[in-house]
Amino acid sequence: MATTTKIQPRALVRASGGPRYAVALTVDALGTGMLRPFLLLYGVTVLRLSASATGIAMTVGAVMGLVCMPAVGRWLDRGARSTVVAASMSVRVLGVALLPAAPAGHVWLFAAAALFLGIGNQAWPAAHAALVATVAHGRERDAALAGGRALRNAGLGAGALLAAACLTGGTTALQALAAVTGLAYLVAAALAWSVHVHAHPAATPPRGRDDGPAPRMRALLAANVVYVFCLNIFEVAVPLVLVTRLHASPVWSSAVFVANTVLVVTLQVPVTVLMSRFSRRTVLALAGVVLTASYLGFLAATSLGRGWGAPAVDMVAVVCTIGEIIYAGSATALVTALAPAPVLGRALARFQLSTGFGLAVSPAVITALASHGEAALWGGLAAATLLSASAVATENDRSPATVRLPVPRSGVGGDVEEGEAWPEEGLS
């Protein structure tokens, strides 16, 4: 099995879509980081909506955004790449533009803004993964996907810090923040579109393959719904436990969140490259084991009570972050390796549906479990994650041999060429 032991920064940028695309990702992440944590505040403070109405509008927008994913998948399978990425960024411009147009006390325009933002946020991951899979392949593609995630987390963190610094300006600052966010999305969309990456869709499906998703993906998609809970652990579960159970200072929650961001930014690529010596499915199963261990660690840490409990939770959070990093570096990479090229877009769209659904329901599930105590919360998460890891590990791909499908020869700036082999899981 071929492995990637190192990758140079210049090669990583090229495999990720090129310098212009990297700038587009950074600008888009900065805009999202500035707006996402304070969209609720905009609805409550500027539009004077109730917190419950604002939260419901945001949730409905995120869930309804998933409805667009089948169409996004078909669009990608017709060969579109950078165009879909640019569209996912542009539609968020519409969402941000509706915010200042919404009159105070009226929830419907705010809900429409949340819907456009939700569509863009749901469509972007699949479009980005398809673009990277077009300009890079094998383990270089895995590292490029990891690099994109690290870059995005850095931008999100920087954007959130900029927004926090602007909050002292009150309502006027929030309105200016929305305007700057819309401009950032517009610039990012223009940069992404200018990359001009397009894939030639296969004229007919290869013999022995139907025009559906990659084989044996149902268990993977179901497991992903549980795995993705780890992305909300530091925003929902840990603050809930630290503040309401251990009565710790909110500083501990902030420290966990900052540490998680720093670790993802610094370790996402190195850990993904290190794990390239193993199959992607094995690595994804390992991520489930690490996450399970961290959940049990949280259970043990909370049993220490006030005093030692908060520091112990913060220490276990590092283990949980490692599990998150391993999961993020292998899950999308596994889907791109399993999916036949003619249906890569639809496979990624279905994967995003499972991710979006998991992210949407996880806050409600986490808070419901927490209401029954620490054992129900952390024990339930551990059991579900371990079961998911077992399903991932035991699933049999049974993929046909590598077929001749379109993959890139020259990277960014032109159409992909036909005549090279598309690597299947286990062959890269």
From TrEMBL:
**Ranges of Acidic residues compositional bias?**
415-428
Q: Where is this region: Disordered?
A: 398-428
Kindly state which keywords UniProt assigns to this record, in alphabetical order: Cell membrane, Membrane, Transmembrane, Transmembrane helix, Transport
**UniProt organism field:** Sphaerisporangium rhizosphaerae
**Protein name per the record:** MFS transporter
- Superkingdom field: Bacteria
Q: Where in the cell is it found?
A: Cell membrane
Q: How does it sit in the membrane?
A: Multi-pass membrane protein
Q: Name one Pfam family in it.
A: MFS_1
Q: Which InterPro entries match?
A: MFS, MFS_trans_sf, MFS_Transporters
Q: Where are the transmembrane segments?
A: 21-43, 49-72, 176-199, 220-243, 255-276, 283-304, 316-339, 351-370, 376-394
